[in-house]
User: Fold these one by one.
Assistant:
Number 1:
Amino acid sequence: MVLFNRELSWLSFNERVLQEAMDRNVPLVERIHFLGIYSNNMDEFFRVRVANLRRLILIGEKKVDGFEGTPKELYIEIRSIVLKQQNVFEKVYQKILEELSNEGIVQLDENNLNESQKKELYEFFNIKLKHEIVPIILDSKNPFPRLKDYAIYLAIKMFTAEDSKEQYALIQIPHNFPRFYRLKDDEQKKYFILLDDIIRVHLPFIFSIFTFDSIEAHTFKFTRDAELNLDDDIAVSFIEKIARSVKNRKKGEPVRFVYDQKMPKDLLEYLTKSLNLKRGMNIIPGGKYHNFKDFTSFPSFEHPDFLYESRPSNAHPDLENKRSLLKVVLEKDIMLHFPYQRFDYVVDLLREAAIDLKVTSIKINVYRVANHSQVMNALLIAATNGKSVTVVMELQARFDEENNLYWANKLRENGIKVLYGLPDLKIHSKLIQITRKSKGKESFISYIGTGNFNEQSSRIYEDIGYLTADLSISKEIKKVFYLIENHFKRGLFRHLMVSPFNTRRKIIALIENEIAFAKKKKKGLIRLKLNNLVDKEMIGKLYDASKAGVKVELIIRGVCSLVPGIKNQSENIKVISIVDRYLEHARFMIFGNNGNPIYYITSADWMERNLDKRIEVGCPIHSKNLQDELDLIFEFQWKENNKARVIDEKQVNKYRRIRKNEPFHSQEELYKYYMIEPTTDLLDGTLIKD
C-alpha cells in the first residue's frame, strides 16, 4: 500500500501557507501575516513532530511509515526541505519589503537612520526600553545560562583589535514591547524599525563599560521538545502532573537552533558548543530576523487595502433577534457555520440557559477556549444562579495547558464541577448539553461541533456547530458525559460515532456499504472534508473503495498520507487542499448510499489518535435542509479554482485551475451565500431564498 510520509506531507501543507505569502492577489500586510503563520507552524512542527522523530532515532527505530529510509534519513530529508523553504521565505519577505517601499513604507535598521531618527529612537530607548534589557555576559568561569524556548536572543560579539580579544554576551529581546516601532512620518514616507534593530543601535550604550573596537549582534532562537512527560507517581494528582510537566517543558531538549547565517563562525561555534548542539542536524541557518510569528501583528499603516476587507459574521435567520434561543432549538434543528455566521449565538445560548428558571443543568466539554472567555463567563453566571454546571476540561490541549489550568481552577473556585481526561485518553469532542424541565417534562438542548468553544479563533477558523433537541441524539450525548463522569465506562451508541468505541467500525461499515453498491454496478460515492488523513487502515479502505469503482472526493487541508491517482489502487480518488483567508477546520462526511445520502459532522480527523485514543464525537445530520447545506458547502469547495491545490503523489502544491474562464472562490462565494437573508416557509419548514 502506497503512503506518503506524514512529516513530509505536513511540510507540503506549510508550503501552501507560504504560497499565500507569495500570492500577489493577497493584500500586502496579510501576506506578511501568512509569513507569521508559517513561522509559528514551523515552531510547533519542530517542537512536536521533529522532537518525536528525534526520539525514534535515539531508540534505534529502523523504519517510519511512508518513507523508504530510516528515521535519521527522514530527519535529513526534513532538514533539506526546511532549508529550501527558508530560502524562499527570506526572498518572499524581501520582495514584500520592496513592495512596501513602493507604497512609501520603509523598513529601517541600524545602518540607515538619519540624525533625527536616531534622536527619536534614543529617547524611546532611554525612557522605556533600556531598563527592560538584561545583558548576560558569557564567561567560561560561569555556567552557560538556560535559554527560554520561543524567546529571541541577540548574540553579541565585542572585539578589541589590539590584543585580538573577543567578548561574548546575550540579550533577550523584551517580549512585553511590540516587535515593530513606528517612527515619525515625513511628507513622503512612513517608517518602521524592529525592536531587534533598536537594540543594535544602542549596543555601545548597553556595553559602555567595555572597551572594544567593534560590536555586532546576530539573532538566534531555540526550539525545545514540547512533549509532556507525565510520571507514574500515584501520590501526585493529574492536575499537578500537568502543571509540573508544563513547567518542565521549558527545559526540554533542543530540537532546533535557528541563527542569522551572517553570524561570525567563532560566535556560532561558541554557542553550539555551549548548548551541546550537533552541527548540521538541528542547526538551521536563516536571515537577520527570527520569530516571524510576531509578524502576525504587523501594522497596516492606515492602508485599508493592505488588509482583507472587513467581513463581519452574518446573522442566522432563525436565531437573530429571537427572545429565546432555547425555544427555537426545541422546535427545529439549527446548523451554524463559522465564521460566516456568528459564534455569539453559542455564548448567547449559554447566557440564556444561565438565567432560565427552567434550566436545571449545563454540561460542556472544553478543549481550547479564549484567554478571556465569554463561554467560561457564561458558565460562571449559571453557577451563580444555582444551575448544576459540569465542565470537562482537557488539560492536555497542547500549548493551551496553562490557560486550561487557569480556567479549571477558576471554575472550581466558583463551585463548578470540573472533570478531566486521562493521561492516555484526551477528550477532543466539542459538546454542550442543557437540561430543561417544564411542566414535569425534561428536555435537552444539545450542541455538537467540529471546532473549539473559542470566540476569538471562531473569527478565522471555519467550523460547523449543530444544535438539536432530537431525543435520540440528546440521550447519547448524555451517555458521553456519563461515561466521562464514571471513569470512561463503556456505553452503547446507535446514532453517534464515539471514539474510541465505535467510530472506526461505523466509518468502515459506511465505506463497505459504498463498495457493495459499486460492485452491484450502482453509484458509489464518498465525500470527506477533513483536516488530516493519516490512519493506514482507513486509507486502505478508501483504496479498496476506489478499486471497486467508488468515486472518492476528498478535501484535506493539512496532512494527507493517501496518494491519489495510483493505477490499480487510487485511480478513482481525487484530493484537493484549500488554504485561504479562513482556516478550513470543519470535518464532515457524506456517503452516497445509492441516492439516499448519509451525513455526519465530527470532531475527529482520520488519524489513529482521533479514532482510537481520544474521546471524539460524530453526529448524523437528518434534517433535509441541513443536509442540503452540507452538500452546498462541499460543492462550493469542490468547484474552488482559486485557492485549491491538487494533492498528488508528487506533493508539489500545483494550483487547481479547472474552468479557467469561470473563476470560483469558495470562501468568497460562501460568505455571499450567508449574506442572503433566508426566510422560513411556515407550512413545510423549508429554507426559501429571496
Number 2:
Amino acid sequence: MSSEAAGAEPAGAGKAKSKQKKAHPVVFWAGVAIVLLVLIIFGSVAGYLQYTNSEIHHVNVKNLQTAPVKGADANTENILLVGSTSRCALNGKQSGAFGSCAAGVTGINADVIMVVRVNPNTNRISLISIPRDSFLINARPNQNDKIDSALVYGPSQLVLALEQDLGISIQHFAELNFDSFQNVVKSLGGLSMWFPDPVKDAYSGLNVPVSGCYKLGAFQALALVRARHMYYYVKGQGWLYDGSGDLGRIVRVHEFLRVLASQVIHHGIGSFTYDNALVQDVAPQLTVDQGFTPHDMIDLITQMRHVDPYRIPESTMPVMNDPTYSYMYQGYNYGNVVFASEPQDLESITSWLGHKVPGATLNPKKITVSVLGGIGDPAETAQVATQLKDLGFDVVGTGEQTPVGPVVEASVLYKNSALMPDGNRVLAGLSGAVAMGQGKTLDNADVTVVTGTNFSVDSPKVATSTLAKLTLKVPAGSLGTVKLASAGKSGQQALMQLLSAVLDSSSSVPYLDPPTSATAPLPPYDPRACPAKDLQSPSSYAHLSKSEIAKTTPPKTAKKTKK
C-alpha cells in the first residue's frame, strides 16, 4: 500500500481528522479532461446514446441552477468537474496500487475541483481551478473547512459551497475516479509528453528517468498528475525538489489536459472502433448529475467541436499560503491550508465569467453592514467600522467574538442568497485574506464583516484635484511630527488611512505568503507537448538498462519538505 493510501481519511471524519498526522492525499487532476473528451466522443457515436446513458452512473445532486435564459449569459452553463479519491469505486485489479476499500481506505475528498464555463453566445470556453486546500466558509454544513472535504457530504454540499462562497452557479456535475482516467490513456495506447528533465515522485510512483519525448503508460500518466512531491534532475546538480506542492501541480496538470485533449483529437474522433472502445472504457466510471443526459452533452459538443485545447483560458483561484503548514482553527490542527486572497480572487472570477460579478456597481449607501471583531481587539473593530463608513456603507453596529486561532481569515457574511450581490460589493472594498459566504449576520445587517489578522479596508477614492492639494511636511530632524495642509476632510482622511496602513504593515501579524498568480507560467522542468518531429517516435523504457535507470534514481535519503 502506498504512503498516500495508508493515510487516507475515513469518510465523515469531521474535525477529528486534524488531530492525526496529515496524510499525503492522492490527487486526480487529469480526470477533468476525460469529461471533455467523453463529451466530444458522444457527439460521434450518437447511435449508442441509450446504451451509454445506461452505463453512466447518475446521482441526485441538489443546489444545481438552471442556465440563464436572457442577457449576456443566456444558455451559458458551468460544469463542475471533480476527481474523487474514493478507492471503493476502483476495480479490484488496480485498487492495490492506491490503497483498497477492503483495507479500510474509504476516505472521499474532492482533490480536483475545476469548473468549465461554456458560453454559446461568444463561443467561449474557460476553465478555473479551485485549490483543494482553500479554507472556505461552510465548506462542510455550518462549518468552515478545506473545500476538498465538502465531498464527504456528497456533491450537493460541494455545489452549495462553491455557489455561496464564490458566487459560481453550477448547472451540471461530473465526477471521475482513477480507473476512468487510466482507461482513457490505455485506449490511446499511451500518452506522449516532452520531459525537459527526468522527474520522479516517490509518493505518487512517478518515474521518468529520461529527458525528451516520452510515452507514458496508464499508471505513469496517473502518477504524473498525482505528483505533488516532485523532484527533477539537473546534470551537475543532481536531484532538485520542485517544492510547489499542490499549486504547482495545478499548473502542470493544466498543460497535461491540453496534451491529452490534443492527442485524442489527433487519434481521430469519428472512428467507430476507437470511439466505441473509449466510450465503453470510460462510461462505467463516470458519475454525473441526474439531469446531465447524453443529449445535453451533444448540445455542448456542438458548441465545443472546433475549440483548440491550447486556446482555452485556464486559471487558478489566487490564494495566500500559510507557511507553517499547521493551521490551528478552534483548537484543531488542519495542516496545510491556503486562504482566499482579495482583490485577486474577484479579479480572477471576473475574468473567468467574462463580465463583472453581480453587485459590483451597487450603491454602498443602500447596504447595511455590521462589524464583528474576530481577533480580540475592540479598537481594531471600531477602526474597521469607521473605514467602512468612509467607503459609504451604512454601518449599523459592532460586536466581538472569540478568535478562532492565531491566524484569522476575515469573513464577509451575507444574510441570504438574495443579498449575495451586496456581499460582493462589500468584498470589493477589502484586501488580503478574506473569504465570503452566507451566514447569520450581526444586528440583522445585510452583510457582516468579521475582522481577521491579514486583511485591510481599502481607502476611499479621492478626486485627483483633491490629492493635488495635499502636502506632507516633515520638519528637518524630526520623523515624529507630520503636518497635513488643508485639503478638505475627505483628502485628510484618505492620507491618514494611508499612513495608518504603512504603520500597520510593520506591526507583528501572522505571516502569510504573497498571493499566488491566477495564470502562473509552466516551470522550465515541467513536462509539456512533444515537438511534432519527436511525437512520431517517442522514447520508452525499452532502450534503458537497469544500471542506466539507477543512475537517475534519487537517493532514498532525499529530504522532503512539508510541501
Number 3:
Amino acid sequence: MTTHSAPVERRVLLYGDGNINLIDGSTIWLVSMAQVLARTNSHVTLLLKARIISRKMLEPLNGLDNVTVVDPFEGLGDLVPPSRLLSVEEVAERVVELDRAHRFDKIIARGFGICHELARTREFDGRFWPYVIDLPEPGADPTPERLRDLEEISLASERMLVQTGDSRSYMEYRVPASVGKCVVINPMIPDDLGPLRRRSTPQTGRLQGVYAGKLAEGWKTLELCDVPRLLAERGVQMSLSIIGDKIMHSNRTPSWRSRMKTAVTSSPGVEWAGGLSRDDATAYSKTADIGFSWRGQELDSTHELSTKVLEYCAMGVAPVVNRIAAHVELLGEDYPLFVDASLESVLDAIERVARDPDLLEDARKKAMDAIDRYRMANTVERIHAELRATEVRPSVKLAGGRPLLLVGSDLTTSRGTHTVLRQCAGDVRVAQWDPTLTGQEEPRLGELSAAGTVVVEDANPYLVWATRRKVAGQRLIAHVRDLRTDEPVLREAKLDEVDAFVFQAESDLAAFAAAFDVPAERLHHAPLPVDTAYVDRPGLPGRQYRVGVLDLSPSAARPDVAITALRGLLAADEQFSLHIRDQLPWEADEQIDPIERVYYQTLAADLAATPEVAARVAFERPDADLPAWYRKIGWLLVPRRHGRLDQRVVEAQAAGVVVLTPAEEIAAELYGPDTQYGSIDALVRTIVAAAGDSAEFAKLSAGSRLQGGSHDLAVVRPTWEAVLAG
C-alpha cells in the first residue's frame, strides 16, 4: 500500500554520511528526514553510503511511493564486502550523476566532508541545503582551514540546516556568510510514539533501565555496564537492557573495544539485545522506567540534542542525562535525573528515584510534557514552510525578460532588499563596488546593459553612472535609504532617467519632493525590509536587566550617555549590565581622530574611577550574529540618527528588544511612538519599572515586535512589486 497522492512540489536528493545497516543517530536522522520530506509533497531520492544488507532501518519507508532508495552497489551483491563504503569523492560523483539524470530542486546532505565536497563542485549553488553537524565544540577554536571550508559551504548554500538554536548562533558567529541562511531542523520523533499502555508502577528499590544507541567511549557505555552491580551494593535492584550493535573503536584507548564487548556480554544485571529494528527497539525500550544518555564531560558543550533522549521522553521513560543547557531547557531546572560525568552522580540519582516512586513519576511527567514540538508533524510543517519560502514564484515580469541588477557600494545591509527583489523578480544579480576605487565602472558596462531592471542602493556615485548609461527598454530605480538633499550626486545625476525612487522613510520622500522637480507618481515609500521570522528568537532569562548599545564611536552613538544611565540603573538594582557591541578603538585599522581620542580617554578614566560600574560594562565584538545577541538583550539605546533608519535596530525590534531613543520629531516615524525618552532620568525610570514587572516588560517587548513586524518581507513586497512592474 502506498501513502502518497498529492502532486509533487519538488524533487529532492537526500544523503546522510552514515551506514544504513547500523542503528545510530545518523541513520535514524536520515530515515526520519526522508519521511518528513515525503510529507512535504516532495519526491525524495535517498542515496545510501553502503549496500543494503539489513533493511531494519528502512522499514519506515515501506509503502512511500515518493521515496526512491538508491543502493550505491545495487546488483553487485556479495562482490561488494559489507564493510565497503563510498568515499566522499565517490558520493559527490554519484550525486552529480543523479542530478544530471533527474535535475533535483534541492540537494540535502549531512556531514561536513560531503557538504564541503559538494560545495566545491559548484554544481548545486542556489539549491544546496547542507546539514553540518560535526562543528568544533564551543571551547575549541576552529582552524583557519575549517573556517574557510565552512565559508565555502555557506556561499554555495541556499539554506543551511542546523540542529539547534545554539548551533545556529555558533554558525552565525563563526561564519558570517551563513547569517540569514540557517534553518533550525530539530531532532524529530514519530507522531504516534507514546508510553506503554497500562504501565505498572515499579516496586520501591527496583527499576528497569535501557540504553539504545552506539557503544562508544565518550558515551560512557563501558561504565554503564557497572551500574547494576554497584546499585545492588546499595540495595537497589536495576536490570539494564542495552540495544545496539555498533561498537566503536577508541583511538585514545585501543583496548576499549574489546573491553566493551566483554562488559556487555558478561556484566551482572546487563542484557545485551544487539541490533534491533527501530520498531522493535522502541517496543523493548517502552518497558523501561529510565533510559540512559549519560555522556563524558568532553561532550557537555555539544551543540546537539540527542534524538534518543526525545524518544525516551515520548515513551514515558525518564532519561538520565548530563545537566547541560539544552537538557535544562528541555526538562526544567529541577528535573531529578540530571547527572554529571561521574559514576557517583549516576548512582545517587538512580537511587533517589528508585526509593521514591513519586519522584520517578514526576520525572516521567516532565519528560512527556517536553516533547510536543519535536513531533514529526511539527517538523514537517516547519520544513515545508522553509522549502516554500525559497520557492516563491516571481510575481513581476522584468523588462525584456532580462535579469535585475542590484548595484551598491555597501550591500552588507541590503539582505532584506535582496530577498524581496528575488521574491518579486526571481533572477537578481548583485554588483558591489568600492566607491574609493576608480576604473571599476567601464568593465561593468556588460552587467549594466544585460539587465532589464537596475536598482541602485542609495545616492552613491553609481546613480550618476547608471543614469548616463541607461540602455533602451531598461527600467532604473533608485532605492534611497538615507536621504541627503544636498548630495552632489543628486545634482549631477539625470533624474529624469530614473523611473522610480523608493524611500525607506516617508519624511525622506517628502523632503525629496520639496527639493527636486520629480513627478509624484515616481515617488514610493517602502519600509526597510526585514526577515522578521529569522531574527525573532526566544529571549534568554534575565534579558530585562541587560541594556545594549550598537556602537562605541561618539559620532555614531553616545556610550557616555549609556554609562550615565547605567549608574542610575545600578542604584536601583545591581542586576543591570551594559553591553557595548563594537570593536575597541585601538583595534580599528583607521587612525583615531584626535577629538575622539580625547573622548575615549575621558570615558576610560571615568570607568576606572568607578570600578563597580566598570564591572557591569561588557565590550563585545561586532560579529555577524546579531540575532543571537538580541536574545540576551532587553533594551537597546539608540542615539539620534538625523532621520536615518538603522536595519540593526529594526531587527532588534523584531526580536522583541525594547528600543529607546531621545525624543525628536522623526523618532516616532522611524521606530514607533513609544520609543522616545525626554531625559536620562526618565529613561532610567522606564527601564527600572519594567524590569521589575515581568508583565510590563512582556507588553513592551510585544509592542516592539509589532513595530518590527511592519517591516516584514510580506508587508514590504507589494510596494516593490508595483515599482518593478511600473
